[in-house]
Amino acid sequence: MAVDSLDHLRITVSELFLESEEPSAAFLGRRILPFVRTLCLIMEDAMAWILFGAICRIVYVVYHYSWSEWSDLVVRNLFDWARETVPGVKAEIDRQTKEFAATADQVLHKDPQRALLLELPPTGRARKKIIHELQETANKENQKWKHGKASGIVYNDDHEHSQLLHAVYQAYSSSNPLHPGFWPKLNQCEAEVIAMTASLMHAPEPFGAVTSGGTESIILAVRAHLGYYGRRRSIKHPEIICSSSAHAALNKACEMFNIRLVVVDCNDNATFQLKPHLVRKRITSNTIMIYSSAPSYPHGVIDPIAELSDIAVKFGIGLHVDACLGGFVLAFSPDAPSFDFQHVGVTSMSADTHKYGYSVKGTSVVLYRNKELRHAQYFCYPHWTGGMYATPTIAGSRPGALTACAWASMVALGREGFEARSSRIVEASRAIAKGISGITGLKLMTP
Fold it and tell me: Burial letters for 415-447: b for 16+ Cβ neighbours within 10 Å, e otherwise?
């Protein structure tokens, strides 16, 4: 119908502009009305195609969305509606918020007698007094983790190693990687941190970046896959498949880039791993990446990277391995399963140098299999009135001292130091597991 209508329109338009001596009423009836009728037919065909596309989208959503996604959508919308329209709901929320705020100092272990500085002092304070105040409180607060009962907060308790990092930070406290020409040694340190980490993860080439932490590494990996797989394939509704134990930074990334997160529940199986056969069932033409963990933060289990790699290769999609927590432990554990770029389907990885890389807080490394993926992570805006603005990560200015500390930590420990520390961690975890197995009523969630 659409082809016939277009042909008819072409003939009608050509006839419309021919010279005619007919009366205006006859001209209107013979020339204008058929032209308008043809336009209506074309609009009718266009509306039919639009309606067909909408119906297909609705069917797709109904078929592919899980019950938990529908439930979350309904609950979230009902909550937002009730908060704004139902009398008393907003008042109750405000009441509970104020109630928590009143007890926040106690929950966060704050000193109720502390003096608060709410505006800039009229005159500067003496440097010795500033150092004394902060040193005194730091000595008290650091006791909370120095006794060894603070899991996942501080990873380095070696005093000499800490002193080294303090000295390095002081040396480069004014540096900024945004201006590599001013600090070429710092630029070299950043490249070497990426290269050393890439070597540990068996990357083909050292393509990557130093970031502010695991969250930024994950966000950048998602951005890179969105650009490389999503936009190049003109995917309008991109999707990422992950386990229910995936780090919440992935949720943050998907919310930022408007990506649908397809969650595979891992809580109803004995291993708490991401099941490959369930991943395969959830892959669609909109899938750009599979997200896996090595290990997962809640359970400490390693997803079956080899099987997930095969799936990623078969369907031509990305596979990210989140090794933020355990990357610098598994790389030095001989009996650990293979989890890195040795599998051809792995397209990106993340590993935190500020965890078991034993550096100060604020650095992580994101790695890519090829430079095209890394390039998709970058941001460049050439039309700014201040000149071309380009950054490899989310931040513009960055504290170069943190990168220097990451480099110093890795170089100071060397392979031998990392192997020794990883061995101690594995031995401690096995001792804890053995102790739990001897307690009646308790069992290990994972082997």
Answer: eebbeebbeeebeeeeeeeeeeeeeeeeeeeee
